[in-house]
Design goal:
CATH topology: Lipoxygenase-1
Family: Belongs to the CAPAB/TerDEXZ family.
CATH superfamily: sav2460 like domains
Structural class: mainly beta
Number of strands: 10
Protein name: TerD-family protein
Radius of gyration: 16 Å
Distance between the termini: 35 Å
Low-confidence stretches: none
Pfam families: TerD
Helix content: under 10%
InterPro entries: Stress/Tellurium_Resist, TerD
Number of helices: 1
Strand order of the largest sheet: 4-5-1-7-8
Length: 178
């Protein structure tokens, strides 16, 4: 018996962290998604076609940030990004998702942020969930990669690769994650 595997269709990336201690500047973490095309100058790890991050969505509405926290206050996941992979145009073959610490003059890193964690899920099924202890000295990290297979199905690969860069530089280099 055979079946057609449709792959992932709609996934949600949730990010949570505890607020800063009283009197300390707030920690602001952001989910960032980068899309790549098959013909990205022959390098799907190169420059992204576009980025989606705080207060933005993809040009076609398939990737959106539905919740954006600047302090970590609240219950559950403070930031949530929805990726409607099945609706992405065929020219997009890869989506990389990361998390960046907005750096204040003090230069905050993941190790400065209490109880930070990320969850990737499709429907009610968790695909991955983890903290940032392994990249505690970094300012940004890639946490997930979605790839369109030749038949059109989307697959997921869990990653946790740290970067020591600001949000602008991270957006340009996050596609190099392996």
């Amino acid at each position: 018996m055979s079946s057609i595997r449709k792959g992932l269709t709609k996934v949600e990336v949730g990010l949570r962290w505890d607020p800063s201690p009283l009197g300390a500047p707030p920690h602001d973490l952001d989910i960032v998604a980068a899309t790549y095309t098959a013909d990205a100058a022959g390098d799907p790890q190169g420059r992204p076609a576009y980025l989606v991050h705080f207060d933005s969505r993809s040009p076609d509405g398939t990737i959106s940030l539905s919740r954006d926290s600047k302090t970590g206050q609240g219950f559950g996941y403070d930031e949530v990004m929805v990726l409607e992979l099945q609706r992405l145009a065929e020219r997009y073959t890869r989506v990389v998702v990361g998390v960046a610490v907005q750096q204040h003059p003090e230069g905050a890193v993941f190790g400065d942020v209490a109880n930070a964690s990320v969850r990737v899920r499709e429907g009610h099924t968790d695909l991955a969930e983890h903290g940032f202890d392994e990249v505690a000295g970094c300012t940004a990290a890639v946490v997930a990669e979605f790839t369109r297979e030749p038949g059109g199905a989307w697959t997921f690969r869990e990653l946790l690769q740290g970067f020591e860069s600001d949000l602008v530089a991270f957006g340009a280099e996050m596609g190099s994650a392996r």
